[in-house]
Amino acid sequence: MSGTNILMNCSTLAIHIFSMVISLIILGLIVYRFHYNKLYRRQIHIQISSSPFDDQISLILIGNTYLVFSIYHLAWLSIIFRTFIGDFSLLKDHFYLGDSKLCRIQVGIIFFLTSQMYHSFLLQALYRLFKIISMSRLTPIKLFQMSLNNIPIYILMIIFSWLISFLVLIPAYTTFHVFSYFPQQYHCLISFTHIKGFIYSLLVCYLIPVCLILYIYFHLIMYIRRLPNCGILLQTKREITIIKFILKICLVMSILGFPTLFFLFQFIITGEMHPFADRIHELCVSINALGFTFGFSILNSFTQLLPPLSADEDSSMINLRSVIT
């Protein structure tokens, strides 16, 4: 039992607990705001039309992201607890911590949720793209413009993204054998030693979604040059700024993946793995997840999720009309 191992494990555990609590609080605020919007509209019998998009759509997409965050942290806690128990000889004698189907299911859930996390970021970027298309009326197809403001369409997109995350998980089990048992960690994890599996997980969980977000960002840059209306131009720049912030979060958090890449290249060159590689990887993942949790709370200005306590009708309308950004 190494003091360094226990320290890193406790740090990882504390970060995931803290991040999960924050995610649940924000998710609760989102549900509260969603209920408030419906109640407020029922009372005043109006439909908000300051934007071609309903702010309920934004709430649904952000809620999907924080739902993934919450489950993701919970799944990691179940894995870290195995390591925590294994680090203490008095505890591990009472639990079976070897390789098992449950062990591989746990890491499969992590793989699934990581993929879904980046898909939720992609959905938010698509929402910004569709919003600009609808505002600027760049598409002549009226039916398409109407569908962009349709809540069921976005619910179907969320369901479809969850389905894709499940489908990409199947080859990870059957073809690439991405997951392995780590005796020193007492749990299963994505293996550094299976290069093909590691590359596959990197592609489907991170690179492909981030590249699509990059494409959307540069596509919107091209849209700006086609917008003569100053009012629309300002709104468009605002949406592009949000997508740019999403990209910054993804790219800055990817820096925490450098230690993992360093250990991977070390294994490829020397054939040996650093004894602390897995613990450092898990600690970086927890910090990464914490950065996502706080980064998106800043991005979406979650203080706006609270409805105004006392205001006249005009100020209430302004607050209700503001899209969560």
UniProtKB/TrEMBL annotation:
One Gene Ontology CC term in the entry: membrane
Q: G-protein coupled receptors family 1 profile domain: which residues?
A: 22-265
Residues that span the membrane, as ranges: 6-32, 66-85, 105-130, 151-173, 199-224, 245-268
Q: Which InterPro entries match?
A: GPCR_Rhodpsn_7TM (IPR017452)
The UniProt record lists the keyword Transmembrane helix:
yes
Main location class: membrane
Q: Which UniProt keywords apply?
A: Membrane, Transmembrane, Transmembrane helix
Keyword check for Nucleotide-binding: no
Q: Where in the cell is it found?
A: Membrane
What is the protein named?
G-protein coupled receptors family 1 profile domain-containing protein
Q: Which organism is it from?
A: Adineta steineri
